[in-house]
Design a protein that fits this description.
This protein has 93 residues and is of the alpha+beta class. Helix content is 40%, strand content 23%. It has one domain: Gyrase A, domain 2. The mean pLDDT is 97.
Length: 93
């Protein structure tokens, strides 16, 4: 099982991620797109990196907005896996 990060580690890593926030032991971002089709295309881009990492985000889709939440459920909070995947997701357009 992945090791939970300390509050200091979480703050340090969160400061390196643009537009991501930490709320309720989750790393979160909301991305806005032109329309529903572009939002779904973006969600489809999440499949490969998530599967490769064996780490899957919680995703909410509302028309042209995609909210992504990362947490390591079996560890009960944020781990390095969450921040690693957030960095990969941040590179997707």
């Amino acid at each position: 099982m992945a090791r939970l990060l300390t509050e200091a580690e979480i703050k340090e890593q969160a400061n390196t991620l643009s537009k991501w926030t930490v709320e309720d032991s989750q790393l979160q971002i909301t991305r806005k797109f032109k329309d529903f089709i572009q939002a779904i295309e973006f969600v489809n881009k999440l499949v490969e990196p998530s599967e490769s990492a064996g780490h899957h985000p919680d995703i909410e889709i509302s028309y042209n907005k995609v909210k992504i939440k990362l947490t390591t459920h079996d560890a009960g909070g944020l781990t390095q896996n969450d921040f690693d995947l957030a960095r990969v997701i941040s590179q997707l357009s």
